[in-house]
Amino acid sequence: MTGFLTTLMRALASWPLRRLHAWGGLAGWLAYAASPGYRARVRAHAELAGVPWAKAREAVAAAGRLVFELPPLWSRPVGMPLPMPVQWEGLALVEQALARGRGMVLLTPHMGCFEVAGQSWAERHGDRFGAMTVLYRPARKPWLRPIVEASRRRPYLDPAPATLAGVRQMLRALKRGETVGLLPDQVPPEGQGVWAPFFGKPAYTMTLAGRLVQQTGAALLLLWGERLPRGGGYRIHVSAMTEALPDDPRAAAAAINRAMERLILQCPEQYLWGYARYKAPRRERAAADEGAA
Fold it and tell me: Which residues of 171-184 are buried (b: 16+ CB within 10 A; e: fewer)?
């Protein structure tokens, strides 16, 4: 299975981005048509956020595009430039944050192409701003794990598993004055988060982002990667939090959720409304996962 998937990804990696997005959009709608539960979740989540269906429906195709744009990102050999143009906005905020010498935490929702942001950082800004350590949850399928980890490990880009060891890896990176990337709208395992409002409904929310900032004094910025139309590449937006992060874990989680809401409403057409954001957290068997919210 690993060999077949690797071969398929390499074949798709040779396609132009516009074709990948076209087929990805079709795949997104096929997945939407095939799953009543997924359809209901997309519509319910968008309605909860006050997003009209005329806008939210575009996110159905965007979810498929997210999958189809991964092959050129994950399959390219180390050292080969990104095969698509990427623009950055807000780098002055990054310079100011890292100048403090306490590291930086970047938060991004499941929106646009978050994989592009990390790889573009490593390629274009790693030698200037240092490495980025990104939190990821290891794939449940054993045969898929080496592909995912290898594809995300690049010069200046270090994957950190969602385990206690991964949390320690991120703390070390921040203490070196480097950058950590998190998706705070991902549901953490039981005991590693708090219930906080997300578009007015309680959602189990990680406390890790707030703890990293409080324990290290790191700067906190927001980021999301916009997918440009007609295969035109991407635009990475960096912005500041509009409110101070409280010390209380529940209040901090609520503040971060509000920040994610503001980002999502900037471009609801590219948010993964089908993500099961309001599900109950799962139990973790291994004590080693404690603290990896």
Answer: bebbeebbbbbbbb
What's the CA gap between 126 and 131, in Å, rounded? 5
First vs last C-alpha separation in the chain: 31
The residues, ordered by sequence, that sit 6+ positions from 98 with a Cβ below 8 Å of its Cβ are: 104, 129, 130, 177, 179, 219
- pLDDT tens digits for range 7-51: 877 888 889 999 999 999 999 999 999 999 999 999 999 999 999
Residue 90: name the closest of 69, 121, 122, 113 by CA. Answer: 121
What's the maximum distance between 2 C-alpha atoms anywhere in the chain? 50
Cα 37 to Cα 274: distance, rounded to the nearest angstrom: 9
How far is CA 223 from its chain centroid? 9
Neighbours of 83 (CB within 10 A): 15
Structure tokens at 68: 């189809």
Q: Alpha-carbon Rg of the chain, whole angstroms?
A: 18
Condensed to tens digits (0 to 9), the pLDDT of residues 132-174 reads: 999 987 767 776 677 677 777 889 999 998 888 999 999 999 9
Q: Do 75 and 282 contact (CB within 8 A), yes or no? A: no
DSSP secondary structure letters along 52-118: -HHHHTHHHHHHHHHHHTHHHHHSSPTTPPPSS-EEEE-HHHHHHHHHTSS-EEEE--SBB-HHHHH
| Separation in Å, CA 92 to CA 96, 162, 177, 221, 272 | 6, 30, 17, 12, 29
Handedness of CA 251, 276, 6, 117 (dihedral sign): negative
Amino acid letter, residue 288 = A
Look-up: residue for tokens 């960096």? 238
